[in-house]
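Notebook, p. 212. Picked up where the previous page left off. The plan for this session was modest: take the two constructs that came back from the sequencing core last week, fold each one, and keep the raw output in the notebook itself so nobody has to go hunting through shared drives later. Recording the first one now, exactly as returned: residue sequence, then the structure token string.
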Amino acid sequence: MAIRVLPFYAIVLRPLVSQDLNQPIWRMLLKNAVNGLFDGEIMAFPSMELPSLRTIAGLLKAGGYNGPEHGDHADFVWFERGEGKMPNWLEKVELRFFDSDRVSAAWKMVNSEVYSLVDQNDQASAPTKGYQVDWPPFIGRIDK
């Protein structure tokens, strides 16, 4: 899957890492996976204000995750209005919707075989690559 780029502040996390994580962080992540933006590979924590994301970043670091200061070895990164320093495991891709001329963007793991799009504004539907939306490598519409 992929997560549609969020318009304000966000932390994007790769939750599955090799280092040990503590129990409280797993509880927080499981709650966010059910109620939030999780595509099975990456997780996004959106916010309209920076202080709440600082709290989340502190919890992630206390739980065992590497912060953005670790560069490509970071387990989570900050974004403001969709822009931020991209580690080598994450990419921002262009989204093209078949039903309109709108163009947007999403975050996804590099070399991932993702097919559905998670959208904070429309969590009920999950557009699928090739059917409602496309992203690189572009495959075009596969249903007629």
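Okay, moving on. Second construct, recorded in the same format:
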Amino acid sequence: MKSHRKGFFGTNAGILFDSGPSSSPALFITFIRKKEDGSWEKPSKKEGRAIKFSLVDIAFILQVLRGDKNAWNTVHSFEQRRISISIERDSDNRESLKVKAGDYLIVLNYGEAEVFKALLEHAFQEKVIGSTEVKKREDFSELKKERSQETTRESLEEKKENVLRESTVLTGACTGETEKALLIDFEGNNKEIWIPKSTIRSSFDSNITDSQTFEIDTWILKKNNLL
């Protein structure tokens, strides 16, 4: 049931990568952007756009990331809505990658594109194995009982994953650091809070004293009364 999460942020747009459990044959990429007031869209408030990508979709995307193709385009339909999706190399800068869903667009630089590729390749391999594994049992009644128990566990795990999947983007300044946590002075809250590094999904520079953007698991922010 391993899963992987990572945020990639540009100046005005970002994507949140969520592999989900390895037993699932799909993953989610959520597109968000900065609003006029300077805050970021919050998936926990049903803002942004979450796209579900199948194993076949991932295989096509990896063709572009590996340089076998220049671009991949498709159209996803969900609840009677159609959205155009494209992944392509920037024609002006081949080391950059354009990721677009509808009117959401983010350009990943070389380093970000390489991390994105590594995550997709790893998740793809895990899911090919985890989502297709079959167990054989001679006793059918025992197998039926096991599947019923697995369905219940998966339902509970899915609910847990949905809670852990939620994240929120806030702005603040790093004022302290330990091996496992950052002390962040969040804008608009007038208080410093220790945040575990394991709950921070976006990249950060603890040496920067000015404000920077942090994508943090929503549950830890709620626990500290920041939401």
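Notes on construct two before I forget. The two ends are 29 Å apart (CA to CA).
Flagging for discussion at group meeting.
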